[in-house]
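Data card: per-record layout.
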Amino acid sequence: MSQPSLSLVDTDPAELAVDAIVIGLHSQPDDGGALLPAAGAESIAAAFDGKLTSTLALLGASGAPGEVTKLATLGTIAAPLVVAVGLGDEPSGSAPEPEKLRRGTGAAVRALAGSGTVALALPVPDDGDAPGVLRAILEGALLGGYKFAGYKTKAQPNRREPVAALRVHVPDAGDAAAGAEVARAESVGRAVRLARDWVNMPPNQLRPPQFAEAVVAAAQGSGLEVEVLDFEQLKAAGYGGIVAVGQGSEAPPRLVRLSYVPEGVDSPRKVALVGKGITFDTGGISIKPTAGMWEMKSDMAGAAAVGAAMLAIAALKPSVAVSGYLAMAENMPSGSAYRPGDVITMFNGKRVEVFNTDAEGRMVLGDAIARACADGAEYVLEASTLTGGQVIALGKRIAGLMGSDAAVELIRAAGDKVGEQAWPMPLPEEVRKGMESDIADICQTNSNLDRAGHMLQGGVFLREFVADGVEWAHIDIAGPGYHSGEATGYWTKGGTGVPVRTLLQAIDDLA
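The structure for this 511-residue chain is written out next.
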């Protein structure tokens, strides 16, 4: 689906001739739970002669974060429909928390599917907080209204198309900073939506060669330098991990490298983004249980995020040199599949004893990380749906985060800014001791097949492929990368696009 058009307006919201207008609604627990229209809705509240909140309360509105209540205006204002979205308690500062606005806006825009043009009269302050607040509103609107096109052959009579156009009310629509936020949001929105599209595609439509082709096609005209290594090239160059995982499939593996170099910047900082691109994960010889295996189409969410982030970087043009490495393979059981007990020589020369072919992600990532370091990266930021242990430890919304102190703090802070939380985890020496091999440099998993600290085992293994002096972060998005529940906030069902926005924020913070 195409992304909605975005524009800024400073016309009185009550006079905007649109299909619907979205306002914010606060609860006031210190005032018996009374409702309060958020800033931006003053003229609309005045048009209802002080009866707006009482009418919304009769319709069940409470101001709870993300709650959506619709009210027909009956000619009171120009728009025929007011949609009030709950923003929680009245804020103590000039505006609500950006993440509350992001989630609330996403919920409201999704609820308005079928509307042509929607205006957003939400609280954008006229102080230094304005850019961050406006960014949250714009991102929430673009992402909450996302819908995957799908493959249905029959027309759906009750299908409502996503909102086509968004008009965002701000105090000064001509402000250059506000205009810059619109341009940025459009680039970021396209990137996240593309990552979601790739993750949501069925695995027979996006096997490694097709995934590589899709990334190359998307990068055309972007200015990115593109390199694609096929199966024979991977074997010849010593990418033992990618080759081992991919050799069991008739759809051979690929390594895609996308490179951006800023113009006019002497000796720019070099950052590598690395993503796991397992287009389908059966577990290989160590085959997975049947239940829920269909979701393993999302095991390439890290590579989808990295590829999409690189396209946004090409548009945003930061002063940092960034390369993206997408390690693509399909993990299948067959007569040519790699086996438990195999010893694999990786790209950096280290030898790995395989204990579990379902721990394939770390194999392809080890090669990609080593290549990024060989290319001179100063920072390596890697994203992957790596372990079920992440979901057990941190749930579906918060990513696990491991690595060097500087890179971990960079990602943690960036995630907090954009609403994609990541929780720092340790890399204990006892976990590494449990991965000692009798015959190779390291075991791929705990040598006693102990799953204790499973998420940490993944991080400890990947550390082996990071060159000395390189700052690195491993972001385990096994939970946040795919949302199997009903839509909530700006997350729709399926791929989430996490951590595209975190990576982009981190690049901004390094610039």
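Known properties of this structure: Residues 94 and 127 are 8 Å apart (CA to CA). Residues 176-200 form the longest helix (25 residues).

See the next section for split statistics.
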